[in-house]
Sequence to fold (103 residues):
Amino acid sequence: MSTAALAERRNVKHQSMRLVVAQLKAEGLIDLTADPRDRRSQVVTLTPRGRAALINDHRTRAEWIAAVLRSQATAQERQTLDAAAAVLNRIAMTYSQEGSKDD
Fold:
C-alpha cells in the first residue's frame, strides 16, 4: 500500500503520513519498494520486525481489553459485546476482502 493510500485510509494528510512512514522506516518496522504500477510511488510493507511488533501490540491491547471487561462488565454486557463483535468481524472481513482488490 502506498503512503497516499495509508493516509487516505487513516484519514490524515499525506504529509503527516509521510512523517510516520519515515519514522517507521528508521525503526526498521517497514520497508519501502518501488511501486511496479507507478515508479514515482513507493509501496510500504511490514518487515518481520514490524510484523512481530504489530502482533505484540494487538495481543497486548486484546489482553488489556479482556481484563477490563472481566472486571468491569456484567455477564449480560459481555454477551452483548460478543454478539456485537461477531457483527463487526463479519463487516470487517467483507471490507477487508473488498479493500484488498484496490490495494
In short: The longest helix spans residues 48-72. The domain at 3-72 is CATH 1.10.10.10 (Arc Repressor Mutant, subunit A). The two ends are 6 Å apart (CA to CA). Helices lie at 3-10, 14-26, 48-72, 75-99.
